[in-house]
Amino acid sequence: MFLKFVSAILTVVAGIGAALIIFWILNKIAELLPGRLEDRIKPYLYIAPAAFAIILYLIYPSILTIINSFKDNFSRNWVGTKNYTDLLTSDDFRQTLFNTLLWILIVPAITVALGLLVAVLADRLSARNEKTTKTVIFLPMAISMIGAATIWRFVYDAAPKGVTQIGLLNAIGGFFGANPVQWLQTQTFHLNSLLLMVILIWLQVGFSMVLLSAAVKGVPGDTLEAARIDGANERQIFTKVILPQIKGTLITVFITVTISVMKIFDIVYVNTNGNFNTNVLGNEFYNQISTFVNYGKASAIVVILMVAVIPIMWYQVRHFKAEEANA
Looking at 68, 93, 112, which one is the last position of a domain? Predict the structure, then answer.
């Protein structure tokens, strides 16, 4: 443990030191230039390391992924749109797309709604109770996806009838005489997928609550008092006064959670590995690249995700610009 701590400290110090040296060198280069040219070039020199990092770690891999999506499983020979055609004509992959869409429609909406509910209700508590409540709800954020998925496996676990149930739900059901249920294998009304969604909601509600609570507290008290003086009840104050003023934060939280949902992998992989009609794009990508060793189809799945994310990011950028213009 001590060695890991020392290693972490040395890594941080080395990283900061390297950054300082790079910017010192760039500053010296700028100082060699004549007067006005120095002032014009210096800002570009300062952003050059960040721009280089973006090109190296983001743009280049994206371009390479797009190219590989048109190649065979070992990224050697061109196969045109075969990877996309094979995926989109596959019943299993279409079901995977539907499952992913189901996650996108359900999880962000419920996460934001619960986060807002907790934020508003906690705001009415005393300072001490508010801190305790928020701490308990935020606590799952400290758990990794893998850890959370493992915890909830013990909630959904099912042993054969007559064997002691270690799964919480079946243990409660057994106490009342019910037969054990294979929760993660129950495909009726996509129940198993919905139960997996509960895990991510449990993890993300704390994040949603913290941001929305800050937004709610940022609503001017004078506005609320004026609404009460005008005869507005609490429901009207919430819908007509609070919600419009925290709309920007609501959209930001919703989009952030949506992007997280589109990349979901760990929860599905740990609990079902996509079996029993629970597969999602993230898990399918992992299976294609690791199980089937098909880099072409794996790249095509990533491109599909990229295409799906672009409109969301475009809307987010427009939203930020609109907020800045109105500020």
Answer: 68
- φ/ψ region of 162 (left if φ > 0, alpha if ψ in -120 to 50, else beta) reads left
Residues 33 and 96 in one domain: no
Query: How many helices (DSSP H) and strands (DSSP E) are in the chain?
Result: 16, 0
- 299, HSE (Cβ side, Cα atoms, 13 Å): 23
In terms of phi and psi (left: phi > 0; alpha: psi -120 to 50; beta: otherwise), the region of 156 is: alpha
Q: Which domain does 12 fall in, by range?
A: 2-68
**Domain co-membership, 256 together with 182:** yes
Q: Is the confidence at residue 252, as pLDDT, over 80?
A: yes
C-alpha separations of 220 from 241, 244, 246 in Å? 10, 12, 11
pLDDT per position as a tens digit, 110-159:
999 999 999 888 887 777 788 888 888 999 998 999 999 999 999 999 99
Number of structural domains, the chain?
A: 2
**What backbone phi and psi angles, to 5 degrees, belong to 49?**
-60, -40
Q: Is the pLDDT of residue 180 over 90?
A: yes
Do 43 and 125 belong to one domain?
Answer: no
CATH number of the domain within which 104 lies: 1.10.3720.10
Number of CB atoms found within 10 A of residue 43's CB: 10
Cα separation of 306 and 106, whole Å? 21
For residue 71, the SS3 value is strand
Q: Which of 68, 99, 116 is the last residue of a domain?
A: 68
Q: What is the pTM of this model?
A: 0.88
Proportion of the chain above pLDDT 70, given as a percent: 99
Give yes or no: residues 55 and 145 share one domain.
no
Q: How open is the CA angle 280-282-283, to the nearest 5 degrees?
A: 70
Phi, psi of 153 (to 5 degrees): -65, -35
DSSP-assigned beta bridge partners for residue 78: 71
Q: What is the per-residue pLDDT for 124? A: 79
In this model, does residue 327 exceed pLDDT 70? Answer: no
